[in-house]
Design goal:
Helix 1 links the parallel strand 1 and strand 2. The longest helix is centred in the middle third of the chain and has 27 residues. Helices cover 52% and strands 6% of the residues. The chain is globular. It has a four-stranded mixed beta sheet with strand order 2-1-3-4. By secondary structure, it is of the alpha+beta class.
Length: 200
């Protein structure tokens, strides 16, 4: 398998943590790309020009991260990270959607802050910040119920939080949310998270 990736993407990291957790990371060749500066390298696999994108051993192309993670867990993980059916499945998928939405908002904040001051929109940034803060509060409220073993929802949450620690610009975001801080600290000790730590 081949994965188009970037070292800082929380969505790529989610795929890589998933691959490590189910024991197939060594079967995935990493193909680095810069989707923003060279989207033509991505569009043959994903016409949206976004990463990650996975080419399977059969030659099929899958995107985005939620699809890739479900594929890996279904094909190789025996639905260990995403239950095949029932209430647990919808809980995990909803948590993943929350985490992915938060990561999207942090990406948008980061992009807007890198624009020239004359064209950057403070209103747009504030709108995205409100999303991030609401997501952080919800994750903190849920954290006490997270299991010791990861699922796709908690993997997505930890990857989004790891990206926010790098790019959001609020060093105290976890200090204000102790339940979430404890969960993240424990997750960071797992080999899958150590192996995929973002490289600046």
């Amino acid at each position: 398998m081949e994965l188009l990736h970037s070292g800082l993407s929380p969505f790529v990291r989610k795929v890589l943590v998933t691959a490590h957790e189910i024991g197939v990371a060594d079967r995935i060749a990493l193909l680095p790309v810069n989707a923003r500066e060279r989207p033509e390298e991505v569009r043959p696999l994903n016409p949206l020009g976004k990463i990650p994108a996975l080419r399977t051993d059969a030659g099929d192309v899958l995107f985005d991260s939620a699809v890739i993670c479900e594929y890996l867990d279904t094909e190789f993980g025996g639905n260990r990270l995403l239950p095949a059916r029932g209430a647990a499945r919808w809980r995990v998928l909803t948590l993943q959607a929350l985490a992915d939405g938060m990561a999207d908002a942090v990406v948008l904040i980061r992009n807007e802050r890198t624009r020239p001051a004359a064209t950057a929109s403070a209103d747009w940034i504030a709108w995205q910040v409100a999303k991030v803060e609401a997501a952080l509060d919800r994750l903190d409220a849920l954290a006490a119920g997270f299991g010791a073993e990861p699922d796709l929802g908690t993997i997505a949450a930890c990857c989004a939080l790891g990206y926010a620690e790098l790019r959001y610009g609020d060093a105290a975001m976890l200090a204000r949310r102790p339940a979430l801080a404890r969960f993240v600290a424990a997750a960071k000790e797992r080999p899958s998270f150590r192996a995929t730590a973002p490289q600046m």
